């Protein structure tokens, strides 16, 4: 397989990426954040909006992506509204890349925006214990089996089975905050210690508050294009080299192994299709709603053996200048998490590969050069779904 040529057809490039205003955004609507991110991504690409013939969106409106496309003044001929939680955007990127490679679209815009934090503060949104109480979930919801409780159960199983410690899980939060320190867009930048993570208020055993993602406002956009447009781009392209998707379960009783996520499948497929090995990856952007999610995804993508994630995350390996920089913007644990965060992973991976992260947080190879390969892997639900995308510089 030629690098960046899915199925031997047209190459697919990331042409533009952007964030909307993020963090604390009290005066904007989710639609406005979508529009802001979309305009910025288009400007980043150097292309005219008339090239967009594909659109992907989820999480907003009754008929997503129809409502958002209308708000943006777009009339796409290819659309996707796949919604699988945090993995949505990697799955959508995979679908879009396939469509472009097959000639069904030439330029697909993926865009997301949410005022999750502002809605809570203003009383527009109330908390709920369950995603729903119909279908398979009816057998769990009456017993108070919340989303975070499901992650907590899985973490406890990993600790029991492999000896993973709370201190090791806390290291993930500490290193995420350290990476956020140099990111001006991060909501929380002050350093934290392992002791502070462990001493925080208990949310769901074994997770204290700092084991859990933050709640913020924000949006972002990514524009994928066919190779035909590359000569017209404002910046060098980042190529989509391979992708993989997978689903696992929705009912906990149907989850074969609490210590294995669907990233074990999506990652294998993405690496095989990209023609690269995990050892060749220069940086990883991983969904981190909870510290355990980072740990198990590292294992399942093949960066360390199953059960060795606890030892792997120590010694600063995940820092910007570590052996495997992970969530270089601070991730959902420190930078931003307005809900389905998967698209932010792609934005950060592209910026790092382009060398645009800035002098204080740009990842460099040991020889001082820019990173060549990155992986973005999103997780949805309670390890119910996964999408993994491998990206490379031209």
Automatic annotation (TrEMBL):
Q: Does the keyword Transferase apply?
A: yes
InterPro entries according to UniProt:
Thiolase (IPR002155), Thiolase-like (IPR016039), Thiolase_C_2 (IPR055140)
Organism superkingdom: Bacteria
A molecular function annotated in GO for this UniProt entry is: acyltransferase activity, transferring groups other than amino-acyl groups
Instruction: List the Gene3D superfamilies.
Output: 3.40.47.10
**Pfam families (UniProt xref):** Thiolase_C_1
Q: Does the keyword Transferase apply?
A: yes
Ordered alphabetically, the record's keywords are: Transferase
Tell me the ranges covered by the Thiolase C-terminal domain, including all copies. 244-393
PANTHER family registered for this protein in UniProt: ACETYL-COA C-ACETYLTRANSFERASE, NON-SPECIFIC LIPID-TRANSFER PROTEIN-LIKE 2
Write down what this protein is called: Acetyl-CoA acetyltransferase
According to its UniProt entry, this protein's organism is Streptomyces inhibens
């Amino acid at each position: 397989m030629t690098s960046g040529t899915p199925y031997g057809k047209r190459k697919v490039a990331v042409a533009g990426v952007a964030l909307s205003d993020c963090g604390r955004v009290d005066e904007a609507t989710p639609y406005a954040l979508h529009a802001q991110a979309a305009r910025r991504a288009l400007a980043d690409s150097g292309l005219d909006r008339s090239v967009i013939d594909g659109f992907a969106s989820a999480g907003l409106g009754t008929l997503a992506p129809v409502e958002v496309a209308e708000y943006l003044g777009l009339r796409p001929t290819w659309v996707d509204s796949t919604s699988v939680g945090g993995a949505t955007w990697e799955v959508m990127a995979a679908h879009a890349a396939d469509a472009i490679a097959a000639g069904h679209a030439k330029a697909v815009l993926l865009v997301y925006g949410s005022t999750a934090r502002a809605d809570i503060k203003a009383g527009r949104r109330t908390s709920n214990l369950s995603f729903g109480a119909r279908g398979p979930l009816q057998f769990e919801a009456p017993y108070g089996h919340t989303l975070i409780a499901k992650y907590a159960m899985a973490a406890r199983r990993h600790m029991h089975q492999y000896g993973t410690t709370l201190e090791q899980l806390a290291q993930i939060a500490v290193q995420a905050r350290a990476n956020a320190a140099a990111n001006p867009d991060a909501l929380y930048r002050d350093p934290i210690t392992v002791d502070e993570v462990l001493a925080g208020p208990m949310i769901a055993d074994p997770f204290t508050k700092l084991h859990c993602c933050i709640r913020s406002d924000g949006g972002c956009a990514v524009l994928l294009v066919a190779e035909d447009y590359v000569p017209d781009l404002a910046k060098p392209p980042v190529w989509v080299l391979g992708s993989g998707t997978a689903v696992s379960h929705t009912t906990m009783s149907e989850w074969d192994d609490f210590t294995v996520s669907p990233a074990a499948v999506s990652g294998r497929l993405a690496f095989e299709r990209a023609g690269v090995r995990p050892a060749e990856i220069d940086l990883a952007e991983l969904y981190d709603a909870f510290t355990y999610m980072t740990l198990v995804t590292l294992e399942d993508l093949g960066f360390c053996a199953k059960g060795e994630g606890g030892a792997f995350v120590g010694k600063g390996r995940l820092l910007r200048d570590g052996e495997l920089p992970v969530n270089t913007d601070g991730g959902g644990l420190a930078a931003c998490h307005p809900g389905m965060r998967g698209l932010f992973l792609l934005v950060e991976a592209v910026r790092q590969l382009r060398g645009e992260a800035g002098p204080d947080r740009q990842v460099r190879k040991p020889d001082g050069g820019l990173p060549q390969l990155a992986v973005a892997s999103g997780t949805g639900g309670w390890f119910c779904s996964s999408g993994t995308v491998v990206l490379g510089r031209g």
